[in-house]
Amino acid sequence: MAQIQNKWNPRILFLGAILIDIASFYPLVKQYLMPHESPTVWMLVGWFMALLGPVFSMIFVEKILSKLVIKREQYKELYQKEKNILLILEESGASLENAILYLATFLMMIR
Fold first, then answer.
1. Residue 66 and residue 53: Cα distance in Å, rounded?
2. Are 65 and 21 in contact (CB under 8 A)?
3. Fewer Cβ in 10 A, N or C end of the chain?
4. What is the CA radius of gyration of the chain?
């Protein structure tokens, strides 16, 4: 009998979680596109602070800017793998999508 090896790809779970997170913002977007009460200053401050979390994470923890700017040789030396911009963006995918969604929500609230 031949044995079947099932290998789980964590990338599927990660990208699926990002898609679900994006879909979870639909009710919030719907709420702010329909007539609603004006947000309070504290709501805006809270959303702005929430926006700072993923932005700081991308800059200081994931170091996305330095990864995108450094040369291929330096990248390979530092990270022991080839520089691939799509993979760099994927590694910061959760922070990127959160920053974009929080910024969009913040801008909808102040319009």
1. 18
2. no
3. N
4. 19
